[in-house]
Design brief:
about 140 residues; mainly alpha; two-stranded antiparallel sheet; about 60% helix
């Protein structure tokens, strides 16, 4: 992040982390990679917060819901919204191979992929013990 960009943001203090943090790659609006990033964020993040998933996958909340429905209808991806654990669980990936999708996103958007993994570690650490136990018993 440049010094000008840091100073342009209101209410933020210039820190070492801000200076050396890698820029997240923007995802083009009509790119098919956007739906793969949403799928990956839903799979890795231990949260059902649409704002967090949208931040990770670089989309609006409206786009998130649209992409979620398109993944279900066209690619056959089945989600389970586990309200007790407060997260989305990818039950079936349909015609998509989740490992290949993850590798494709890691190659094309390395900084964004690393950001999703970082958010995943933070949400996993903040997840209550009861929800973690419920997820283990559901598997």
């Amino acid at each position: 992040m440049s010094l000008k960009a840091c100073r342009a943001e209101k209410g933020t203090q210039l820190t070492y982390w801000n200076l050396h943090r890698p820029e997240l790659e923007p995802v083009p609006a009509k790119s098919p990679h956007r739906k793969y990033l949403v799928l990956l964020a839903m799979h890795l993040l231990h949260s059902d917060d649409p704002q967090l998933i949208c931040e990770a996958s670089d989309c609006s909340e409206r786009t998130f819901h649209y992409v979620k429905n398109r993944l279900n209808e066209h690619e056959g991806v089945v989600f389970n919204h586990d309200r007790r654990a407060k997260r989305y669980v990818v039950v079936q990936t349909g015609v998509l191979d989740l490992a290949r999708v993850a590798e494709l996103m890691r190659r094309n958007y390395p900084n964004r992929y690393a950001y999703i993994e970082e958010l995943s570690a933070k949400t996993r650490a903040s997840q209550p013990k009861a929800a973690t136990t419920a997820l283990r018993h559901a598997s």
